[in-house]
Amino acid sequence: MKPKEILDQARKLIAEYSSGDPDKWWYANRYVFARLQLDERQTKTAVKRRLLDAGATCHVCATAFDSTRGVHLHRLDADRGYSEANCVLMHPECHQKHHAQHSREQLPGTCQALCVKESKRYEDKPFFYWWDISPNEAERLDRHEAVAFVQKDTGYRCVLPTPTLKLLLTPQRQTTRGAGNWGIKVLKNRPNQLAFEPGRGGEAWLFLPVVWATEEQPH
Ligand SMILES: [Zn+2]
User: Where are the domains of the chain?
Assistant: First the structure.
C-alpha cells in the first residue's frame, strides 16, 4: 500500500465513524492527527537519547552537552527521516547560528528543530498559562518545523506544526501589546485547549484542542 492509499483509508474510516456528524468527525480527525504527530515526536526523542548515550557532542562547536534538556536534533538530509545515521545534535544557540549561516542554501522548513516557548503558571488570573508571540518572532518561526508550548511548572507541552500555528496568527488577532503581539493562553475552564486571544480586531476567542505530554511520554 502506498502512503497516499493509507491516508485515503484513514479518511474513509473517519468518515464512516462520524457518519456526517461534524463533532464526531472533528474529534476523530484531531485524535488521529495528534497521535500520529506524537509518534513522530517520540521517534525523535528516542534518536536523541541514543545519540546522547553514544556520547555525541554538538555538531557545530564539538563541545559536550551539560544537560540533555533543550538539545536540538537536526537532520542532515531533509529528504530522509529520523535515524542516528541522518541526525546530529546541536546546542540551541549553535543551531540558530548554523541556520543563520546556511539560510541561503537551505529552504525554510528543512530545519526540524522545535521552537520551545515556556510559560510560568498563573494562579490569580482567569488563565493558567500565557505565551506571547511578537511579530518578529512569528517571522522567524519558519525556521522551525513546530512550536512547543511548555508549562514550566509541570513540564507538559503541546506541539503545533508551524504552518498550523501561522494560520492562526492573523492580523485581527494581534493585540495592543508590544509591536502587536499575539496572545495564546490556557484558560482555567478549558485546560486541554490552546486559547487564541481575540486581539484588537475584535474577533472571538479561538480554541484549539491539544494533547499535553511530557517530552518523553504521552500524558
Ligand atoms: Zn554547540
Answer: 1-112, 114-219
